[in-house]
Amino acid sequence: MIDFKSIETFLWVVTLGSFGGAARKLNTTQPAISQRIAQLESEIGVKLLQRDSRTVMPTPSGRQMMQYAEKLIALRSEMLAAVMDRSAMRGILRLGVSETIVHTWLPQLIERVASTHPNLSLEVEVDITPNLRARLLAQEIDLALCLGPLSFSNVRNRVLCDYPISFVASPMLGLGDRVLTVHDLAQFAIITFARKTQPYEIVRSLFNRPDLPHTRLHASASLGTVIRMATDGLGVAVIPTAIVERELAEGQLRLLSTDLHVPTLTFAASWLASPDTLAAELVADVAAKLAQGEDDPAASQRGISAATVARPESQALR
Description:
Blueprint: H1 4-16, H2 19-25, H3 30-44, E1 49-51, E2 56-58, H4 60-83, E3 91-97, H5 99-102, H6 106-116, E4 120-126, H7 129-137, E5 143-147, E6 155-163, E7 165-169, H8 182-185, E8 190-192, H9 198-207, E9 217-219, H10 223-231, E10 236-240, H11 245-249, E11 254-255, E12 265-272, H12 278-291, E13 308-309
Parallel strand pairs: 3-4, 3-5, 8-9, 8-10
Antiparallel strand pairs: 1-2, 5-12, 6-12, 6-13, 7-10, 7-11
Helix pairs in contact: 1-2, 1-3, 1-4, 2-3, 6-12
């Protein structure tokens, strides 16, 4: 008798185009995937997949089977969302996260997911938004918490929060309390986000002017490194205010007043539209409540208050 596990396996082999991809998605082995597909083809009595050295493609019968598989898996997800105890949700969710979130409320997210969904495990990977976007589209992660929303027809988004960007520096640089111009700032190294990110390009454009001297622009994918370089007096950092609240409170860094403006960063939870997205949607919901400080009186003590609640019409940095 055909079971849901075989149907789900078939769906992910076709969606991901390989047995190996389906094995990673379903947290099993490639031989187990092959065995499930062979059993399904035996029970149906038709060949569903055409295999070659690189990819796996559905046969005409497989394409017809795929239409029903998507409907069945979607109906199962709808049923579970309606009737199941959310704490019973089990499995592994591959979560990609921007480092700004790592420095603010990621630990609380992991703690909250463990509390509300104790049988759901998180595999967390930290990267810059362009890489997270590519990995989400390649279905190498299930949910991305990054700059967004992502504008793709097959991606679903939930806006999380906005983070203002500030210019900060160590008191040892002696920049004082006056309003600093771009010419004043260009005398120092500028430390900011990694290359290939939209924030980096915005910062670079501010100092890429013929009337300015050559400005050293230090880029790092590690915001922890950016903070350390700033506190050591190696330059002026351009980063989210939320991640340096402790350093500002302790006097290691000072908030600078400038005549420059860097757009606020909007973060979103993004996942691919597919028949089985219940786990991603549940974690996205938890993330949204944390990011916006809902039902969490202690949020303001953890730096979450530094992120303003995002508006649906917010423009994303992509």
